[in-house]
């Protein structure tokens, strides 16, 4: 097959040629935008899921929908080593510019508040290099969003931004990726601000994306957070959607998969969007001709797995210390002891490829300790460090899971 015409895109956050299986989320967001624009009460949104399920891609698609409606938008990626003020100020600055308010005076007033909001972090005596320089020419406002209390300041800032959007009959949407990495104070402030602007009926929404434990992070900050957001669990694709993600781009290049080729691809990828793109790219490059068959998938699978082992799995594994790697391997072994890898479905041909989907999604911390022959309490430092690094998460008390699908299988394949 011609590699130049290869349609698949296994990039981080890169939109695939066919965004399959996300129609429900896209249509739901269209309703949210329309209701907010009409002054109707509506909740902000939170997307959750494992890594590789396409949360960032979907987040970008939702932002595109808001831009097409003339909304002001801004996006940021939360980091555990950074507070919210600077990245949020940058996102809101872009949103205000996109609104295109006809009154320069009104816009400048809000931009002055925005500048005061972010400069409050540096402090009045900060050196010039530590001050934020976003291209805002107006001076910082005083007495608004500059108290130093992030909760008070964020409520005031979003209130002013929402008022500016309401003046022109539009809305503002802030998109936050890796939302679980926000600090506790920032999470609390964000929830309080979303609550306040919702009560005021202002056209401002927050759309967050993060790992499966993000709802628990929000709930721990504010008990009412479960009512602030519309939660959407983003999971692997159904067989039909996965087939469409493969077949539609191939058809655009005058190629196709055989039915057994599609079945083999689903067994290899488990329906996870990133793996679909990664396997699709490798299978296309190695297949001699169209149609692509199950045999082509079997031949290409080792190379696809090798690339994933280096770029997708290996890069994460290398971030762990030796003690943390022992913990990760013990998690994988505990999962294998509890439930073996899934057998091929009876209605799908056995191509000889290893099944990709594991039946165990989480393991008990006590089982991990048993594998290592240690007490669970002695492993707490390694577990907590892995959680901070985003390699594992706790969906419920006493249980842990990998944030990356197929990570257990990868670990069991290591020496």
TrEMBL record:
Instruction: List every stretch annotated Disordered.
Output: 1-24
* Signal peptide coordinates: none
**Coiled-coil segments on the chain, per record:** none
Which Gene Ontology MF annotations are present?
A: ATP binding
Domain (Orc1-like AAA ATPase): residue spans on this chain: 18-207
InterPro entries to which the protein is assigned, alphabetical: AAA_16, P-loop_NTPase
* UniProt keyword annotations, A-Z: ATP-binding, Nucleotide-binding
Per the UniProt record, the lineage of the source organism begins with: Bacteria, Bacillati, Actinomycetota, Actinomycetes, Propionibacteriales
Keyword Glycosyltransferase on entry: no
Official protein name in the record:
ATP-binding protein
